[in-house]
Amino acid sequence: MNQQEFFAASGIGLLYLVRMLGLFMVLPVLPVSALGISGATPFLIGLAIGIYGLSQAALQIPLGLLSDRIGRKQVIGLGLGLFIAGSLIAGFAENIHVLILGRFMQGCGAIASSLLALLSDLTRVDQRAKAMALVGIAIAGSFGLSLILGPLISSYIGLSGIFFLTAALGLLGLVILLLFIATPQVRSINLDTKVQKNLIGVVLGNQGLWRLNLSIFVSHYLLVSLFMVLPVLFLNTGRIEFADHSLYYLALLGISFIGMLPFMWLSDRLTDVRVLLVLVVSLALIACWIMGSFAGYWWVLFAALLFFIAFNLLEVVLPAQVSRQSEAGARGTAMGVYTTSQFLGIFAGGALGGWILSFSDYNTLLSVNVGLIVVWLCVCLSFPSTSPNAARTIPLGEMSYLDANQRVEALLSLDGVIDAVIIEEEQVAYLKVDESVFIEESVSKWARPEESTK
């Protein structure tokens, strides 16, 4: 990567980090701290936790499409402004209803798709995989940091202090956007990130993709609904003070990453992803069952560890499967629908979890979750047999003697190429290939000197 591409990737990664910290730091804090807010009930607390997912789900695709028309940085700036305003409203909230409004406005800053589009505008095709890796590190780290920093910061400056800090982070994001990220002179067409309205119906009708969308919905429902009870379960052990929750989350997340390694090793050797998904979902099932059956210190920690291992594995496995199941050139659309499902799961976790707790106790919520996971397990077993399909993005060389249709036919004639889409303006081909047959070198005569990206 050149200097501009490195600064663009680093700056956009920081914007992701700032935004994710602001949204997730309250996750382990609100179920306990919000009890002292005027008008708070379990249902309204759950709504406050999850409602940003509703506004994110509603606006992330429309704002991404708007950025195609009026500019990336304009939409990102607007989103950060809404995020800051929502944080301030939540920080000054004296009752739960105003807090819910603030959280809803935080979610209106749905800039994820616009950030990825900006990254595509500022990087060359052959450098986008490296740039996405930098952004991916920020996204992956933000969740763990949120769980650790939320209780720690809350113990010093309270719940309102977290929201004011979040507003300050939003202002920092604006500074990064305006001063450190270049304004693209040309808008690229990157089908790995762009949502195409005409393909949404195709994506929704794909049997493999709807199962993946359901899986990400359920996993994030479980995440939020379990955080409605996990801080309370920690306190109920009688051995974990609220101020120490950060240390426990740090230890659990660290051990969970180690616990992921055998499953990652296994995933590289499995030809059918159904086996891995069934194992991972079974871990989540065992975790919820233990939480609802045992209240002891070590049992609670063990159950939390199992869930974190399962959740972190799903965050790695599911997006990779979206790429494999998508048609050539439809990955951006598929990921847009997938992300919408993720945010709807967050909203459902808060709203449904809070509603159940409003008339019953956490054992009922955990029992409902166990039943839902059993259904999810059946869905995983019904996954179509997976093939070794993968996506490839090929920067095309100059071949004026062939038109786009001839190039597509030539690419489809190669062993292992299942589908191909060419974007003439970008001189890029998007391929769907069978990795068991496809030979990387077979496309070398079509590609520019830069490497193709996976």
Describe this protein's structure.
With 454 residues, the chain is mainly α. It has 3 domains: 1-194, Up-down Bundle (Growth Hormone, Chain: A), CATH 1.20.1250.20; 205-386, Growth Hormone, Chain: A, CATH 1.20.1250; 389-443, Alpha-Beta Plaits (2-Layer Sandwich), CATH 3.30.70. Helix content is 69%, strand content 5%. It has helices at 3-24, 30-33, 42-70, 72-92, 96-108, 112-121, 128-179, 200-204, 207-227, 230-236, 245-267, 273-293, 297-325, 331-359, 362-381, 404-412, and strands spanning 389-395, 417-423, 428-434. It has a 3-stranded antiparallel beta sheet with strand order 1-3-2, with helices on both faces. Helix 4 (72-92) runs antiparallel to helix 5 and helix 4 (72-92) packs antiparallel against helix 6. The chain is globular and about 70 Å long. It starts with a helix and ends in a 20-residue tail after the last strand. The relative contact order is 0.13. The model has no long low-confidence stretch (mean pLDDT 86).
Give the CATH level 1 class of the largest domain.
Answer: Mainly Alpha
What is the number of strand segments?
Answer: 3
Based on Cα principal axes, name the global outline: globular
Low-confidence stretches: none
Order of helices and strands: HHHHHHHHHHHHHHHEHEE
Which structural class is indicated by helix and strand composition?
mainly alpha
Number of structural units classed as domains: 3
Count of helix runs: 16
Q: Could you name the CATH homologous superfamily of the largest domain?
A: MFS general substrate transporter like domains
Any idea what the radius of gyration is? Answer: 23 Å
What characterizes the major β-sheet? Answer: 3 strands, antiparallel
Mean pLDDT figure: 86
Give the strand content: under 5%
Q: What is the CATH architecture descriptor of the largest domain? A: Up-down Bundle
Strand order of the largest sheet: 1-3-2
